[in-house]
Specification:
This protein is an alpha+beta fold. It folds into 2 domains: 202 residues, BirA Bifunctional Protein, domain 2 (2-Layer Sandwich); 50 residues, Roll (SH3 type barrels).
Length: 278
């Protein structure tokens, strides 16, 4: 039966198999406890934040076929047609110094880039602090990590079968890039397994991005570090400089004419890469 809210058939945008996901993900995992798939929800992050407050365990995963009030960083909206993307949030309770939690969205970005490459062959890059970009610079996914006391809820919205007509000109999808149908199930499983591998190593290193290897691999995937950037600040002002590094707490280090600045994700509204000066 077709969904009245979508002109796409189930063959083109099939529903996720919740039982199969639960079995495949939790069978050999020491992190993931449960996977719930809901047909429609306001915000997966908001729902998991409420669950975290009620004592939900680390490793709780919530997936939505359609999210109607999805949010990005700074309360920007994130919308996607039903069954057109991977919309997932998961609950973590990392036993690491609080300042190191700034690496969680970066860790998630690396895991997403790795899994998208491994499952679909699409090569992407991570844009600090929270986007996955196609090779042409268009946005494939957004990441939102929110701290709630000692818990962190991480949400991801990945465009899978969304068409160019359904997306802004600045975004794209896996199907648009590959020119083929992409099954969301293997993409979601690959991503969550990659998160677990990365997260376990990072926590064992007490959040140390160098010892865990996360800093090295993040730099390999980054399209921000090593580039000239223009950073828009919350007050509307901007600074321009060279993005030199990401520091131990996940802040972007930018060399500007006025000196070196360390920026946390909450300190910026936009980060844009500028063409290199001739």
């Amino acid at each position: 039966m077709s969904d009245s809210s979508s002109r796409w058939s189930d063959l083109e945008r099939p529903a996720l198999d919740a039982a199969a996901l639960q079995s495949a993900l939790t069978r050999d995992s020491t992190l993931w406890r449960s996977v719930e798939v809901v047909q429609e929800i306001g915000s997966t992050n908001a729902a998991l934040a409420a669950a975290a407050a009620d004592g939900a365990p680390e490793g709780t995963v919530l997936v939505a076929e359609h999210q109607v009030t999805g949010r990005g960083r700074l309360d920007r909206t994130w919308t996607s047609p039903p069954r057109a993307g991977v919309t997932v949030s998961f609950l973590l309770r990392p036993d690491v110094p609080a300042a190191r939690r700034g690496w969680l969205p970066l860790l998630t970005g690396v895991a997403l880039a790795e899994s998208v490459r491994d499952v679909t062959g699409v090569l992407a890059s991570v844009k600090w602090p929270n986007d996955l970009l196609a090779r042409d610079g268009r946005k494939l996914a957004g990441i939102l990590a929110e701290a709630h006391d000692r818990a962190v809820v991480v949400g991801v919205g990945l465009n899978v079968s969304t068409t160019s007509a359904e997306l802004p000109a600045t975004a794209t999808s896996l199907s648009a890039i590959t020119g083929a149908t992409v099954d969301r199930g293997p993409v979601l499983l690959g991503f969550l397994r990659a998160v677990e591998r990365r997260y376990r190593g990072w926590v064992e290193a007490l959040g140390d991005p160098v010892v865990s290897g996360l800093a090295r691999d993040y730099l390999a995937w980054s399209s921000t570090v090593g580039s000239e950037v223009e950073v828009t600040l919350p007050d509307g002002s901007a600074l321009v400089g060279a993005a030199r590094a990401v520091d131990w707490d996940g802040r972007l280090v930018v060399d500007t004419p006025g000196g070196t600045v360390e920026l946390a994700s909450g300190d910026v509204r936009h980060v844009r890469t500028r063409p290199a000066e001739a």
